Amino acid sequence: MDELERQWPGHFKMWIRYHLEPLGNKGRMLLYDLDGSVGDLVEGEERVHYIDRFEERLGLPPLWEECPDCVEYLAYDHCLFKGRGIAKWIAVVHGPDTFFASGSGPVASGLLDLVGHRAPEISILLLPMVHFDGEAENVPNRTALCRRSVLASFTWRRRQPDYFRAQVVVRPRSVDYIDGHRAWLFETVPWPSSQHVVLADEWRANHYGSLFQSRSWENLGERVK
Questions:
Q1: How confident is the model at residue 64 (pLDDT cuts 50, 70, 90)?
Q2: Which of 25, 22, 167 is closest to 106 using CA atoms?
Q3: Is 149 left (phi over 0), alpha (psi -120 to 50) or beta?
Q4: Which of the chain's termini has less CB crowding within 10 Å, N or C?
Q5: pTM of the model
Q6: Percent of the chain having pLDDT more than 70?
Q7: 46-64 average pLDDT score
Q8: Nearest CA to 164 among 122, 207, 193?
Q9: Residue 142 in this model has a pLDDT that exceeds 60
């Protein structure tokens, strides 16, 4: 995380506030960390419940450097059970390289715009990822601020949305567990009628996939702006 802040100063706090501020007092974030490296970055963020050294808290051996994703699903389940009976909806945000976004542009109410009008029988929303990949753009006439901004430095995206890596938004009262890019319902909840696949031009998860290392998704079509 230190390297992320060196390259993109202020990005982490911006990512938190991007998702939380539109929700007002209705939004909370559970933030899971394996090595405790973001403790200073969340200081003062009252609506962030920070769980540091998650692997250690579970009593598991320290394998995060070898297998950083090994406890990922356990974090999803912890978040789901923590929110059950408290939250009406839970959204799994992949990490600081992912931003939930309305296809029509910024909306004042943020994720409330996505979930607020859903019929009560809908319990799962699957949002496609849209990958902004490749190398960061270095445009000489940009301001210094834009050159330090992830959102301004990655503007080329893959044409096709990625539903295989869909981001999950669920009603915790209906969902048994989340396994990354899908959610599983309690047996009493009908499926697939309770699941809605969201079109990319409605809502999506913009994924800046090269934030930590250069990556590309060539199988999802050409890159477009």
A1: low
A2: 22
A3: beta
A4: C
A5: 0.90
A6: 93
A7: 86
A8: 207
A9: no
Q: Are 208 and 150 in contact (CB under 8 A)?
A: yes
If you search the block for the tokens 């009976």, which residue do you land on? 85
pLDDT value at position 139? Answer: 54
Residue holding tokens 């403790």?
A: 39
Residue labelled with tokens 């539903």: 163
Task: Assess contact for 170 and 123: CB atoms under 8 A.
Answer: yes
Where in the chain does DSSP place strands (E)? 29-32, 48-51, 90-91, 98-102, 124-131, 157-158, 162-170, 175-178, 183-185, 195-197, 203-207, 223-224
**Cα–Cα dist 185/175, whole Å:** 4
Torsion angles phi and psi, residue 143, rounded to 5 = -70, 160
Q: Is 143 exposed, middle or buried (0-12, 13-18, 19+ CB in 10 A)?
A: exposed
Segments in 31-179 forming alpha helices (H): 54-57, 72-83, 111-115, 144-147, 150-153
Q: How many CB atoms lie within 10 A of CB 65?
A: 8
Q: Are 206 and 101 in contact (CB under 8 A)?
A: yes
Selection from 170, 196, 197, 199 nearest residue 185 by Cα: 170
- CA–CA separation, 27 vs 210, rounded Å? 28
Q: How confident is the model at residue 204 (pLDDT cuts 50, 70, 90)?
A: very high
Residues 6+ apart with CB under 8 A from 3: none
Residue 196 β-bridge partners: 125
Phi, psi of 30, deg, nearest 5: -100, 120
